[in-house]
Amino acid sequence: MHIVKSNIAGVVLLFILALTVSAETVEHVVIERSGTKIHVEGRVIVEAQDGGVLLLSNDGQLWPIQSAELKSREKEERKFKAMTQRETAKKLLEEMPEGFQIHTTAHYVICYNTSSVYAQWCGSLYERLYRGFYGYWKYRGIELDEPEFPLVAVIFKDRGGYMQFSRPELGESIESIIGYYNMRTNQVVMYDLTGADNIRPNQNIRSSNHINQILSQPGAERNVATIVHEATHQLAFNSGLQVRFADIPFWVSEGIAVYFETPDLSNPKGWRTIGGVNKTILLNFRNSLNNRPPNALEALLSDDKRFRDPKQSAAAYAEAWALNYFLLKTREDDYVAYLENMAKQMPLIELGGEKRVAHFKQAFGNDLEELDATFLKFMRRVSPRR
After folding, report:
1. Digit-coded pLDDT (tens) for 293-323
2. What is the distance of C-alpha 164 from the center of its chain?
3. Spatial distance between the Cα atoms of 279 and 257, rounded to a whole number of angstroms
């Protein structure tokens, strides 16, 4: 369960005054980083008072550019156009090491150096999630946008290649992460989980049914959940449900991803249930209640510190799932209105704790103490079999 915003510390504050830029204007920007000049073509999303910009390139990547890095800007009066699947595939193969191949589905470009059977299995799972995700929110009155860019997943054949590729982005935290969504590149990155340590190495995958057998065993539950979790992040940020680099509270973004990830090991593919009770997470939530402070709800709403603390992250993720589950089951209309209001936020504008709490109270009422009591009472009655 890991969402990567990349190294943008210090950039957020530069974008305090931002404006929307015409989508009809393409800009050619030259920046200099670590002594290297980089040319980027794209659409400026926001512009800071000091001249820094957030640029969206035609492959779907976001470039937070500080004014000191910016060497030149040249506007071109033509409509911004996202890369096609074929163009995206070509670019990926040029960037990745030798041995990678491409598998495409209706909405995804999967770049992989594992077996084609595993890539196809993932593509099928992604498409099922895609249909379920859009259908779920449409039923609740939220009309989502179709993704502007092909959805990219990079799948390594083993953990070693995955770690070598991802360590510059994640640092030492890569040791505990088996897959992630990178908010800057807009890509999901993972490795072939049929050979993960908690299952068993397998070098002779013969069919999708064989993968189903491996990933439906109890030790694989969290692995399948991770695949769905990170793909849910990608869908949320490409459908308009959430805005990349906006100040989306972790309890919302992570809670929704956990809500969608719930494995169903009675199903051959290991996942089919949207909104089912996540038994593992429910147990984590209940185990954390004895140490839950009185102001836990307000703390969860106002900042994301607990999610970044290894000692508290499991409890934070569990409470995020539980709060989303509670609100969707008991306050669905208010929750939908809250999400729709959040979708209007601009990138790189930090709300701060007080505004986060104020937005929540606007949707769900001012009495957090009463809401928290109702929340805990409801969750104590939730059955793992539901």
Report:
1. 889 999 999 999 999 998 899 999 999 999 9
2. 21
3. 15
CATH assignment of the domain containing 107: 3.40.30.160
Q: Is the pLDDT of residue 120 over 60?
A: yes
Mean of pLDDT over the chain: 87
Same domain assignment for residues 148 and 127: yes
- Report, as an integer, the average pLDDT of 242-266: 88
Q: What is the rounded distance in angstroms from the CA atom of residue 157 to the CA atom of residue 193?
A: 9
> What domain range includes position 314?
279-381
How many domains, the chain? 3
What amino acid is encoded at 75 in this protein? K
The candidate with the shortest Cα–Cα distance to 118, out of 137, 134, 103, is 103
Rounded CA-CA distance 48/172 in Å is 32
- The size of the chain, in residues, is 386
Contact 306, 299 (CB under 8 A): yes
Helix (H) or strand (E) holding 152: strand 151-156
Cα–Cα dist 57/27, whole Å: 9
Q: What is the CA radius of gyration of the chain?
A: 21
Read off the pLDDT of residues 190-225 as tens digits, 9 standing for 90 and up: 999 886 555 554 456 656 666 555 555 555 566 778
